[in-house]
Design brief:
It is rod-shaped, with a radius of gyration of 35 Å. The longest helix has 79 residues. By secondary structure, it is mainly α. The chain has a domain of 99 residues.
Length: 167
């Protein structure tokens, strides 16, 4: 029985539990699939994106910047290597860090976005499968309700005939 037919079934042709199990394909692990599809460079880009986007990295840069600026502002003049107010060397190094990190962060975000799309598609497929299964369960429940109602009517008729025989 094809899965398309499950939507158009009548009460007498409902699939059995075994038929439903045979229709179920295994749910793929998109996390593993994504991980396996990544090259070493892509894994490195994701690692950098995850670590650069952390508070630890922020505090590292904040500490480095404060130390640099304070040293070159408050240290004895002969020990200062990047004079106030320009801090040219600090600006150059900061810009180089930005130039190298920004493209890597963008690559990492694109890869993480691709992973999110894979997870979203897997969720959608699972939701569709669950909707079909719920529909089948509802059909079974309706059919069982009809059978129970029919049995009750038969029992009532039997009881009615028994009462008539006794009276």
């Amino acid at each position: 029985m094809a899965s398309e037919n499950l939507w158009n079934m009548d009460k007498t042709s409902m699939p059995t539990l075994q038929e439903l199990r045979e229709l179920r394909k295994p749910i793929p692990n998109v996390n593993e699939e994504h991980e396996e599809s990544l090259s070493r460079l892509e894994k490195m880009a994701i690692w950098i994106t995850e670590h650069v986007g952390s508070m630890g990295f922020f505090f590292l840069l904040l500490g480095w910047t404060l130390a640099w600026l304070l040293w070159n502002t408050l240290a004895p003049k002969p020990l200062r290597f990047d004079p106030y107010p320009g801090f040219v060397l600090w600006l150059f190094i900061s810009n180089m860090i930005q130039l190298f990190l920004l493209p890597l962060i963008m690559v990492g975000q694109n890869l993480l976005s691709r992973h999110a799309e894979m997870r979203s598609q897997a969720d959608f497929e699972i939701n569709q499968r669950a909707e079909k299964e719920v529909e089948i369960i509802l059909h079974h429940l309706e059919y069982q309700n009809e059978l129970i109602a029919k049995i009750l009517r038969e029992l009532e008729n039997c009881l009615k005939h028994q009462r008539e025989k006794w009276l």
